[in-house]
């Protein structure tokens, strides 16, 4: 008798397109075609948030820390995958879901304390705790708010422009 559920083990796992790759990518759509998976960007990251992701390709893990936009990943890469440092790093933005403690009427402002760009603000209301509002225009996608969130309610993902 053949166990068909085990066949998935040998199939190639698709690469997650929603994963935030690296800042300043010249062509994010062709990243998996051009990246050699050498790991130099992983070694160069000053906050150690670049990790090997699906298929061994580097991706950013904001659960570890934030991106300081130091450009060391781009400088360490032996391939021509990156734009100039003066360009916009990426189109990644934060989102706050309904698991947020403040949205459950529990006082918490950890994300606001970490947001240097002041993209996360809290608005007061009568009979409830202050609720977070996120200004996507101010958000630079650094991910500083992600690791400090006690309920993992904040996600940073790429947005299409």
From TrEMBL:
Residues bound to [4Fe-4S] cluster 1: 35, 38, 41, 45
Cofactor: [4Fe-4S] cluster
Organism: Vibrio renipiscarius
PROSITE patterns xrefs: 4FE4S_FER_1 (PS00198), 4FE4S_FER_2 (PS51379)
Family: Belongs to the NapF family.
Binding positions for [4Fe-4S] cluster 2 per the UniProt entry: 67, 70, 73, 77
Subcellular location: Cytoplasm
Residues at which [4Fe-4S] cluster 3 binds: 139, 142, 145, 149
GO MF annotations, alphabetized: 4 iron, 4 sulfur cluster binding; metal ion binding
Predominant cellular place of this UniProt entry's protein: cytoplasm
HAMAP family reported in the protein's UniProt record: NapF (MF_02201)
Oligomeric form and interacting partners: Interacts with the cytoplasmic NapA precursor.
Keywords (A to Z) from UniProt: 4Fe-4S, Cytoplasm, Iron, Iron-sulfur, Metal-binding, Repeat
Record Pfam families: Fer4_7, Fer4_9
Gene that encodes the chain: napF
Function noted in UniProt: Could be involved in the maturation of NapA, the catalytic subunit of the periplasmic nitrate reductase, before its export into the periplasm.
Domain 4Fe-4S ferredoxin-type as annotated: residue spans: 26-55, 56-87, 130-159
Protein name as catalogued: Ferredoxin-type protein NapF
Gene3D superfamilies reported in the protein's UniProt record: 3.30.70.20
A cellular component annotation (GO) from this entry: cytoplasm
Domain of life: Bacteria
SUPFAM superfamilies reported in the protein's UniProt record: 4Fe-4S ferredoxins
């Amino acid at each position: 008798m053949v166990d068909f559920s085990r066949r998935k083990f040998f199939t190639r796992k698709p690469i997650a397109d929603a994963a935030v790759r690296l800042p300043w990518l010249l062509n994010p759509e062709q990243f998996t075609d051009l990246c050699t998976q050498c790991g130099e960007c992983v070694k160069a990251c000053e906050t150690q948030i670049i990790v090997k992701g699906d298929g061994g390709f580097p991706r950013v893990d904001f659960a570890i820390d934030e991106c300081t936009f130091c450009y060391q990943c781009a400088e360490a890469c032996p391939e021509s995958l990156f734009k100039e440092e003066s360009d916009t790093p990426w189109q990644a933005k934060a989102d706050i879901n309904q698991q947020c403690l403040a949205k459950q009427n529990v006082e918490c402002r950890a994300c606001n304390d970490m947001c240097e760009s002041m993209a996360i603000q809290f608005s007061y209301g009568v009979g409830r705790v202050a609720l977070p509002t996120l200004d996507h225009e101010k958000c630079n996608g650094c991910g500083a708010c992600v690791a400090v969130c006690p309920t993992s309610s904040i996600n940073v993902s790429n947005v299409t422009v």
